[in-house]
């Protein structure tokens, strides 16, 4: 049973690529995401993160299992293009802007084919470019913009049809840290002000800890799924993964990596003390 507030419901998703030598890119992935959540997806290269995003955004079909997005079971969506245009916004590592179109025209594209009047379309494209801080750059072509600015155009484009879900695949992967932080600030602001649900793949622990939930994947499965309580908890997890962590007794590592230091959603005093001590110890 899916509640109205459930934006993503994935059940036992399996994706197998290839005929002869088969690759099981997703191997039974089940999870749900509620409206307004900000979720980071992490995991080593090749563990299935992009494949998962493709399934959620109906860019490809699972081999078995089911996905519902915004209450629609993707198996029963007939007009996939329309679904994609209306319900999800994609942001990729490479901005994927069309080089021969201006920033303004790139943002307008997803609104074509929708029942939006051209005047409203133009207004909305301007408004979105203003929102991402690119007022005055409407007529610039992608090559006339910096990497960070191009990615902000991509964010504006992803928002064109007011999607309830943004799927972002390493959106800061190609950016210097200042531009990356700018794009992340923008995404968090959208989440806070407009309640847009965000599922974001990242390799960057600093980016992940600014989300509210982290899912880690390994070999096509979800390995961990935990709330980001605050930085101290994240520091403890980071420590558990570090070489110092591996020298601790197994139970202690399990404690550090788990949520044993969190009770009823808040960090215990023990955890705060420990985090402080460990930070003092250094890596
Ligand atoms: N179109 C494809 N055809 C065949 N194998 C693929 C395809 N896309 C991804 N894979 C394989 O599926 C696995 C998961 O890939 P991917 O989802 O891209 O991982 P990640 O995004 O976590 O790096 C990898 O082994 C990859 O080589
Ligand atoms: Mg990937």
Q: What characteristics describe this protein?
A:
single chain, 283 residues, alpha/beta, Rossmann fold, 2 domains, six-stranded mixed beta sheet, four-stranded antiparallel beta sheet, 11 helices, 12 strands, 24% strand, globular, binds adenosine-5'-diphosphate, binds magnesium ion
Task: Tell me briefly what this model is.
The chain has 11 helices and 12 strands.
Order of helices and strands: EEEHEEHEHHHEHEHEEHHHEEH
* CATH architectural label of the largest domain: 3-Layer(aba) Sandwich
Mean pLDDT: 86
Q: Under CATH, the topology of the largest domain is which?
A: Rossmann fold
Task: State which percent range the strand residues make up.
Answer: 15-25%
What helical percentage do the residues reach?
25-40%
| Bound chemical compounds | adenosine-5'-diphosphate, magnesium ion
Structural class: alpha/beta
Kindly state the number of beta strands.
12
Q: What general outline do the C-alpha atoms trace? A: globular
Number of domains: 2
Q: What composes the largest sheet?
A: 6 strands, mixed
The low-confidence parts are none
Gyration radius (Cα, Å) is 20 Å
Q: How do the strands of the widest beta sheet line up side by side?
A: 6-7-8-3-9-10
Query: Can you tell me the CATH class of the largest domain?
Result: Alpha Beta
Spatial separation of the terminal alpha carbons:
46 Å
Helical stretch tally: 11
The CATH homologous superfamily name of the largest domain equals: P-loop containing nucleotide triphosphate hydrolases
């Amino acid at each position: 049973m899916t509640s109205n507030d459930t934006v993503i419901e994935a059940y036992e998703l399996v994706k197998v690529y290839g005929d002869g030598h088969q690759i099981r890119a997703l191997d039974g992935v089940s999870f749900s995401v509620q409206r307004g959540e900000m979720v980071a997806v992490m995991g080593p290269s090749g563990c299935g993160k992009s494949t998962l995003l493709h399934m959620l955004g109906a860019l490809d079909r699972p081999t078995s299992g089911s996905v519902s997005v915004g209450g629609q079971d993707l198996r029963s969506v007939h007009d996939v293009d329309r679904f994609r245009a209306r319900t999800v916004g994609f942001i990729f590592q490479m901005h994927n802007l069309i080089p021969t179109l201006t920033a303004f025209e790139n943002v307008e594209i997803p609104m074509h084919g929708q029942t939006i009047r051209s005047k409203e379309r133009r207004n909305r494209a301007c408004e979105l470019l203003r929102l991402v801080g690119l007022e005055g750059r409407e007529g610039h072509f992608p090559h006339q913009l910096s990497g960070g600015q191009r990615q902000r155009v991509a964010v504006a484009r992803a928002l064109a049809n007011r999607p309830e879900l943004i799927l972002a695949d390493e959106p800061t992967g190609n950016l210097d840290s200042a531009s990356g932080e700018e794009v992340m600030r923008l995404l968090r602001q959208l989440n806070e002000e407009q309640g847009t649900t965000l599922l974001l793949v990242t390799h960057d622990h600093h980016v992940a800890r600014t989300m509210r939930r982290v899912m880690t994947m390994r070999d096509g499965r979800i390995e961990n799924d935990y709330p980001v309580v605050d930085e101290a908890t994240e520091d403890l997890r980071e420590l558990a993964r570090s070489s110092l962590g591996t020298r601790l007794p197994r139970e202690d590592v399990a404690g550090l990596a788990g949520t044993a230091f969190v009770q009823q959603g808040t960090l215990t005093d023990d955890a705060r003390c420990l985090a402080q001590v460990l930070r003092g110890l250094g890596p």
